Design the sequence.
């Protein structure tokens, strides 16, 4: 008779729990693609009704948007600023329903000079939608 360890049982149950979970990297890439295309409809389609977007600096935690409608308006305003931003994900880590990533966003300023910034982000998903987004800004 084989001995089943508690670890084996926990691993099996854990795999069952995540067997139906979405491919978080694919969901992140959908959001980045929509951002790069400046497709507000797709960006908003990827978030939940109660989505919250936070950003953190060394000294502050700020709720940038709360709710789908506020996120939509923020994206409209961002893209109206005249920049043509482009995002790339340089690395990521998946942990349960969260994916953390290093994002680099670049655009050309009015003089044609390339401006680049980077941030660490975390998206939390539920039912294939982003419910929380945290960005750690320098």
Sequence:
């Amino acid at each position: 008779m084989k001995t089943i360890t508690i670890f084996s049982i926990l691993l099996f149950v854990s795999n069952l729990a995540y067997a139906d979970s979405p491919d978080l990297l694919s969901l992140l890439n959908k959001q980045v693609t929509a951002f790069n295309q400046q497709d507000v409809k797709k960006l908003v389609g990827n978030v939940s009704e109660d989505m919250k977007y936070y950003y953190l600096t060394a000294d502050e935690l700020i709720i940038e948007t709360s709710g789908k409608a506020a996120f939509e308006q923020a994206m409209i305003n961002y893209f109206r600023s005249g920049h043509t931003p482009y995002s790339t994900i340089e690395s990521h880590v998946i942990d349960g329903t969260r994916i953390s990533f290093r994002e680099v966003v670049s655009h050309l300023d009015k003089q044609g000079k390339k401006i680049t910034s980077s941030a660490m982000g975390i998206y939390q998903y539920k039912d294939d939608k982003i419910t929380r987004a945290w960005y750690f800004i320098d």
